[in-house]
What does this fold into?
Amino acid sequence: MVLISNNPYHLATPRWLGRRFSLTTGQLGAIVLKRPAQAPPDLLRHLRDELRQHKRGAGPPDEGIIVWSAPGITLHGDVRHLDAGLDGEAVRLPLPVLCAIRPGALRVLLPKDRPGAPPEHAVRH
It folds into this structure.
Protein backbone atom coordinates (compact mmCIF):
# COMPACT_ATOMS: atom_id res chain seq x y z
CA MET A 1 0.00 0.00 0.00
CA VAL A 2 1.30 3.44 -0.90
CA LEU A 3 0.05 6.68 0.65
CA ILE A 4 1.14 9.92 -0.95
CA SER A 5 -0.03 13.03 0.85
CA ASN A 6 0.18 16.76 0.41
CA ASN A 7 2.83 17.33 3.12
CA PRO A 8 4.16 14.49 5.30
CA TYR A 9 2.20 12.86 8.10
CA HIS A 10 3.85 12.81 11.53
CA LEU A 11 4.71 9.24 12.58
CA ALA A 12 7.39 9.68 15.24
CA THR A 13 5.21 10.39 18.29
CA PRO A 14 2.22 8.16 19.14
CA ARG A 15 0.26 11.13 20.52
CA TRP A 16 0.49 13.04 17.21
CA LEU A 17 0.48 9.97 14.94
CA GLY A 18 -1.23 10.66 11.64
CA ARG A 19 -1.28 14.46 11.86
CA ARG A 20 0.14 16.92 9.39
CA PHE A 21 1.47 19.88 11.33
CA SER A 22 1.87 22.00 8.23
CA LEU A 23 0.31 22.19 4.79
CA THR A 24 3.03 24.51 3.51
CA THR A 25 6.23 22.42 3.53
CA GLY A 26 6.44 22.17 -0.26
CA GLN A 27 6.91 18.41 0.12
CA LEU A 28 4.83 15.34 -0.58
CA GLY A 29 4.72 12.74 2.16
CA ALA A 30 5.12 9.09 1.17
CA ILE A 31 4.42 5.99 3.24
CA VAL A 32 4.82 2.49 1.82
CA LEU A 33 3.42 -0.39 3.86
CA LYS A 34 4.68 -3.73 2.62
CA ARG A 35 2.31 -6.64 3.03
CA PRO A 36 3.79 -9.42 5.15
CA ALA A 37 4.18 -12.82 3.48
CA GLN A 38 1.62 -14.25 5.90
CA ALA A 39 -0.93 -11.50 6.62
CA PRO A 40 -1.81 -11.61 10.34
CA PRO A 41 -5.48 -11.94 11.34
CA ASP A 42 -5.35 -8.50 12.97
CA LEU A 43 -3.74 -6.47 10.18
CA LEU A 44 -4.36 -3.10 11.92
CA ARG A 45 -2.50 -4.27 15.04
CA HIS A 46 0.32 -5.55 12.81
CA LEU A 47 0.59 -2.15 11.05
CA ARG A 48 0.63 -0.35 14.41
CA ASP A 49 3.48 -2.61 15.54
CA GLU A 50 5.33 -1.93 12.27
CA LEU A 51 5.04 1.82 12.91
CA ARG A 52 6.43 1.37 16.41
CA GLN A 53 9.37 -0.67 15.08
CA HIS A 54 9.99 1.95 12.38
CA LYS A 55 10.11 4.66 15.06
CA ARG A 56 12.74 2.68 16.99
CA GLY A 57 14.67 1.90 13.82
CA ALA A 58 14.17 -1.84 14.31
CA GLY A 59 14.12 -4.29 11.46
CA PRO A 60 15.79 -4.23 8.06
CA PRO A 61 14.98 -1.21 5.86
CA ASP A 62 13.44 -3.44 3.18
CA GLU A 63 10.70 -4.80 5.45
CA GLY A 64 7.50 -3.37 6.88
CA ILE A 65 7.31 0.37 6.31
CA ILE A 66 9.20 2.99 4.33
CA VAL A 67 8.64 6.71 4.95
CA TRP A 68 10.07 9.71 3.13
CA SER A 69 9.20 13.11 1.69
CA ALA A 70 10.08 14.81 -1.59
CA PRO A 71 8.79 17.61 -3.82
CA GLY A 72 7.84 15.03 -6.45
CA ILE A 73 7.18 11.27 -6.57
CA THR A 74 6.70 8.99 -9.58
CA LEU A 75 5.03 5.58 -9.20
CA HIS A 76 6.05 2.85 -11.65
CA GLY A 77 4.80 -0.73 -11.89
CA ASP A 78 4.73 -3.96 -13.85
CA VAL A 79 1.09 -3.38 -14.87
CA ARG A 80 -0.51 -0.78 -17.14
CA HIS A 81 -2.91 0.69 -14.56
CA LEU A 82 -2.99 1.32 -10.83
CA ASP A 83 -6.21 0.98 -8.84
CA ALA A 84 -6.14 3.89 -6.41
CA GLY A 85 -8.16 6.10 -4.14
CA LEU A 86 -8.11 9.88 -4.57
CA ASP A 87 -9.79 11.73 -1.71
CA GLY A 88 -11.98 8.69 -1.06
CA GLU A 89 -12.93 8.09 -4.70
CA ALA A 90 -11.94 4.86 -6.48
CA VAL A 91 -10.00 5.53 -9.70
CA ARG A 92 -7.85 3.62 -12.18
CA LEU A 93 -4.70 5.54 -13.14
CA PRO A 94 -2.37 4.76 -16.06
CA LEU A 95 1.23 4.16 -14.98
CA PRO A 96 3.54 5.91 -14.44
CA VAL A 97 1.77 8.23 -11.99
CA LEU A 98 3.56 11.54 -11.45
CA CYS A 99 2.81 13.41 -8.21
CA ALA A 100 4.13 16.92 -7.58
CA ILE A 101 3.56 19.93 -5.33
CA ARG A 102 2.02 23.01 -6.92
CA PRO A 103 2.46 25.93 -4.50
CA GLY A 104 -0.76 27.82 -3.84
CA ALA A 105 -2.98 25.22 -5.57
CA LEU A 106 -4.76 24.36 -2.31
CA ARG A 107 -6.02 26.84 0.23
CA VAL A 108 -7.27 25.75 3.61
CA LEU A 109 -8.57 28.17 6.22
CA LEU A 110 -8.64 26.85 9.79
CA PRO A 111 -9.33 28.72 13.04
CA LYS A 112 -6.34 28.78 15.42
CA ASP A 113 -8.49 27.65 18.36
CA ARG A 114 -10.02 24.63 16.57
CA PRO A 115 -10.57 21.43 18.60
CA GLY A 116 -7.66 19.01 18.49
CA ALA A 117 -5.04 21.55 17.39
CA PRO A 118 -1.73 20.77 19.13
CA PRO A 119 -0.09 23.47 21.23
CA GLU A 120 2.38 25.56 19.20
CA HIS A 121 5.39 24.33 21.21
CA ALA A 122 4.51 20.67 20.52
CA VAL A 123 4.92 21.04 16.76
CA ARG A 124 8.32 19.58 15.86
CA HIS A 125 9.55 18.00 12.66
The CA atoms of residues 81 and 94 lie 4 Å apart.
